[in-house]
Structures are given as structure tokens and as C-alpha cells.
Amino acid sequence: MTRHTTVRPPLSETSGSDFARLSRKIAEAGLLERRPGYYAARITVVAVFYVGGWAAVALTGGSWWTLAAAAFLALVFGQVALLAHDAAHRQVFRRRRGSEVCGRIAGAGIGMGYGWWQDKHTRHHANPNHEELDPDLDPDLLVWSQDQARAAKGLPRLIGRWQAFLFFPLLTLEAFNLHVSSVKALANRSLKHRTLDGALLFAHFAVYVTVLLWLLPPGMAIAFLAVHQGLFGVYLGSVFAPNHKGMPILTGEDRPDFLRRQVLTSRNVRGGWFTDIALGGLNHQIEHHLFPSMPSPNLRKARTIVRRYCEDLGVDYVETGLITSYRLALTSLHQAGAPLRQARVPARGRDRAGGNDR
């Protein structure tokens, strides 16, 4: 008896969804392959800077030059956070265990709860810029849309009126918010490995405070903490602010297909190698959202393929300079807070403004 083997025809470039066709192009270009050499070098450099920064604190000791070390360590902590981000997306290691170990070590180094952040960030990636589903759009301090402004109470209502002007000053509190949110998440019983995360968090806080009080006089230790944590927060916020703020916000049943959901709500930032280092590759936000596990050094190469593909589909691909991205984000925040500013205008003033004065 002759046995016949069924041969499947090769996938056509026109078969599958829009994202499936793009994904094949990216895979054929080899851009989803891991980059162990790159990450080994990057982790080594960041680790050396981390140790060197604390060594500088010890050497400067009672001198106010220690605040320069605090500023340097703020940048280093930001780079550690970006490594934790890459590890959580399995860009560094293909397997879950290696990714979690790397991510937890990085998180412990900066006082961040890895499990809390990974859960939050995963939900963001699934529904970027969706008012009800993206945790990054929760109106806990700022309002991101005029509907949120109308419903705002407490601090969001007070701050929302002038939030565009307060945005960068408020970023000085972002690192503290990171620590507080990580601790509060430990009360969530559904959080995996929360005991381990809690132990690592409080170990970081204990070591951090002990080292400062051991190396520095109390007043200088407080100044160091304020400068270090404040600038760390500004750096973190400056990295993530250009990515989605000022882009379309989805609501209700707005659920475009995966490709459009990721591309239309994200913004790329133009720049060279320095921008890639400073923003950890997140300046290629569109490519990152389409392919979260793609190693960050491959994102720039993927950009050419993705941009051309979006142009062929007629899908808006937004890319601006860094300063423009901040301007758009701040403009969006100012517009979102408009109902709160209007609410403060006296009724007679509103009548006159509208030409209805009696």
C-alpha cells in the first residue's frame, strides 16, 4: 500500500490577519531572536554603575558632593527599572523562571514589587489607553479625560485643574508612589509570590535606610533621599510619559483589532543611540507594543518594517521628537482638565463669556 503524505502549502503573504502577516515579516527578519550577548553586557555595565554609585556615596561621605552621587544613582535606578521591564517581557530570557529571577533581583534593587508591577503592566499592554481597562489611566491623582474630570473628587479634582503645569513637579513623587503601591499590593491575596515580594521590598528599604544613616549625617541623609528618589521619579515619568499620553483614548466597546489597538494608541520618539539608551528602547513604543518579547536592541530594526507596513495598510503611525511628545502629552492633560477649570468660573461670568448676560 502506498502511503501518501499531505504537504501543506506555504503560507501566503496575504493569508491571516493584518498582524499575522506583519508577524511573519518580523520573524523572517530574525528580530524575535534573543540577544544574550547584548543583555550580558548591559546588565554588567548597569551593575558596575550601581555599585560604583554607592561607592561614590561612601567616598564623598560628609561632603555635599554626595548629592551628585544621588543624582547619578537616580539615573542608574532608572536603568535598573528598564532592565526589570525587559525581563518581565521575557526579552532577556525565553523561559519564565529565568525572567522572574532577573526581574525580581532588579525590582529588589530599586524597591519595586515585581509581581505587582508585572500584573499592572500586563493589563496595560492588553488594553493600552482604554479608559476602563488600562490601569495606567486610573484617575488616582490625575485625570486623563474630560469624563474623568467631571466625575473627579478629592485630589484629582483639586489637581486636575492645572495638572499640565503640575505634571513634572509631581513626577518627583513618582518613585515614592512606586514604593507605596508595591507595599499596598501585598494585601492582594491573588498576587503570586507576594510573600517573596514583600521580603525583598522590606529588605531593600531596611538596607537603603541603614546605608544612608551609616554613611551620612542625618540631615544629609534626608537630603540625599529627597534628591535621589525625586530625580528617580522624574526620570521614570519622563521615560513613560511620551508613549501614550496625548494619543487616542478608547472607551466602552472600542475594541479595534490587535494591530490597530496597539499602533493607534502608541507614539514613537525619534532619536539616535543616545535616545535608545536613555529611554531603554521604549522610544520605539509601537514596535514594543506589537512585539513585547522582542529584545530592545532589535526594535529600531523592526521600526522600518512596521512603519512601511502601516503605511501600506493606511494605519496612522505616529512618530515625533522627544520635546514634541512632551508638549502633546501636556496639551492632552490640560484639555482633560478643562471641565474642572470651567466649574470654577462663576455663573454670571459664564453668561457674559457666552454673550448671555442679562
From TrEMBL:
<keyword id="KW-1133">Transmembrane helix</keyword>
<feature type="transmembrane region" description="Helical">
    <location>
        <begin position="65"/>
        <end position="88"/>
    </location>
</feature>
<keyword id="KW-0812">Transmembrane</keyword>
<keyword id="KW-0472">Membrane</keyword>
<dbReference type="InterPro" id="IPR005804">
    <property type="entry name" value="FA_desaturase_dom"/>
</dbReference>
<feature type="transmembrane region" description="Helical">
    <location>
        <begin position="222"/>
        <end position="241"/>
    </location>
</feature>
<feature type="transmembrane region" description="Helical">
    <location>
        <begin position="39"/>
        <end position="59"/>
    </location>
</feature>
<dbReference type="InterPro" id="IPR012171">
    <property type="entry name" value="Fatty_acid_desaturase"/>
</dbReference>
<dbReference type="Pfam" id="PF00487">
    <property type="entry name" value="FA_desaturase"/>
</dbReference>
<feature type="domain" description="Fatty acid desaturase">
    <location>
        <begin position="63"/>
        <end position="319"/>
    </location>
</feature>
<feature type="transmembrane region" description="Helical">
    <location>
        <begin position="198"/>
        <end position="216"/>
    </location>
</feature>
<protein>
    <submittedName>
        <fullName>Acyl-CoA desaturase</fullName>
    </submittedName>
</protein>
